[in-house]
Design goal:
Layout (H helix, E strand, L loop, with lengths): L1 E6 L8 E7 L6 E10 L24 E8 L11 E4 L8 H4 L9 H5 L11 E2 L5 E2 L12 E5 L3 E4 L14 H12 L7 E5 L3 H13 L3 E6 L2 H10 L3 E4 L5 H9 L3 E6 L4 H9 L1 E9 L19 E4 L7 H13 L9 E5 L3 H10 L4 E5 L3
Parallel strand pairs: 10-11, 10-13, 11-12, 13-14, 14-15, 16-17
Antiparallel strand pairs: 1-2, 2-6, 3-4, 3-8, 3-17, 4-5, 5-9, 6-7
Helix pairs in contact: 3-4
Protein name: NAD(P)-dependent alcohol dehydrogenase
Family: Belongs to the zinc-containing alcohol dehydrogenase family.
Organism: Rhodococcus jostii
Length: 365
């Protein structure tokens, strides 16, 4: 089947919309017509020549669409179903079986290599050359994608499907980090470093969870203003020298939990310093440099937790977030700006500059 896809041919080249060939789904797979796909900072990782996945590649891992073909062996999903696409997992390792598919033993190979267990994926160019097309098991920056049934969450047909894709990764990561990994609960105090899509989703989730104090830290005033509207009780400009001291003062000795979405070592150190004894900081941001901590940084029972995908089971968390959205308690759509598929370069630039919190590309007019 011929489709249109945004192909990254070289590390420093723009994404180009190309006509490519998409293979039929095989056992356990589906073909999905993509109605909307979020653009995430993770989608630019293959621009790094040292990264695991390399061009030519089709990225995109926050897809939403309609099932148009079902492969052999798929049950519970039918042609015409509306679906959200999330990360890939093997379903067989100890962590998958134990309800932690985000910590699948094969997570990095299945999601960040651009390749599947059996090769580069279902896409080839019109000359027959393979294109890496198993990015997070979906490579959904395209008009259509072939995905594993394990990636799929079936949703109600009355939803604005084109806006739902970011639930499958960025929004899931923020909300799951607060609700599941860090277990923020009633009366807890919580700080978020970086008020992008992940951080603001964590703010909304912490409000739902009943946190008594929610502090957002960011460099951009407009994002801090939005954080206050979405549930933060306090905001701090990130360029302030004494962020951790301010947080400790606001919360009576430090927060129970903090979430870093930046990956910046100095910010992570500040997040750790903002904790109360026995507090935990979760790390979801891609590290930018080596993290070096002071000898006593983790004294008094402080903890650091690496988090992938919020430690979520998408089939459980995403319906919960959608129901909260219906109740106007989790208005994630306020983070989104839509772009025609042809404007992918603008979407990438706006995501990088922070002009748009969560770009969503629309492959079909």
């Amino acid at each position: 089947m011929r489709i249109e896809a945004a192909v990254l041919r070289h590390h420093d080249a723009p994404f180009e919309i190309e006509t490519v060939e998409l293979a039929d789904p095989t056992g356990g797979q589906l073909r999905v017509r993509i109605t909307g796909v979020g653009f995430c900072h993770t989608d630019v990782l293959p621009r790094d020549p040292s990264f695991l996945a390399q061009p030519p590649i089709v990225v995109g891992h926050e897809g939403a669409g309609v099932v148009v073909e079902v492969g052999a062996g798929v049950t519970g999903i039918e042609v015409g179903d509306h679906v959200l696409l999330s990360f890939d997992s093997c379903g067989l390792c100890e962590n998958c079986v134990d309800g932690h598919p985000a910590y699948c033993f094969a997570f990095f190979a299945r999601n960040l290599s651009g390749r599947g267990p059996d090769g580069p994926g279902p896409l080839t160019d019109l000359s027959g050359n393979a294109i890496a097309s198993r990015w997070f098991g979906q490579s959904s920056l395209a008009t259509h994608a072939v995905v594993s049934a394990r990636n799929v969450v079936v949703v109600d047909k009355d939803l604005p499907l084109h806006l739902m894709g970011p639930l499958g990764c960025g929004i899931q990561t923020g909300a799951g980090s607060a609700l599941i990994a860090l277990k923020v609960g009633t009366g807890d105090t919580f700080a978020v470093f970086g008020a992008g899509a992940v951080g603001l989703s964590a703010v909304m989730a912490a409000r739902v969870a009943g946190a008594s104090r929610i502090v957002a830290v960011d460099l951009h005033t407009n994002r801090l203003d939005l954080a206050l509207e979405l549930g933060a009780t306090d905001v701090i400009e990130g360029e302030t020298d004494d962020v951790a001291r301010q947080i400790r003062k606001l919360t009576g000795g430090g927060v129970h939990a903090a979430l870093d979405t930046t990956g910046a070592p100095q910010v992570i150190a500040s997040a750790i310093d903002s904790l109360r004894p026995t507090g935990t900081v979760g790390l979801v941001g891609a590290a930018t440099r080596e993290l070096v901590l002071a000898p006593a940084a983790l004294a008094a029972g402080k903890n650091i937790m690496g988090i992938l995908e919020g430690d979520a089971v998408p089939q459980l968390l995403l319906p919960r977030l959608i129901e909260l959205w219906r109740q106007d308690r989790f208005p994630f759509d306020r983070l989104i700006r839509t772009y025609p598929f042809s404007e992918i370069t603008a979407a990438e630039a706006d995501a990088a500059s922070g002009a748009t919190i969560k770009p969503v590309l629309l492959p079909h007019p």
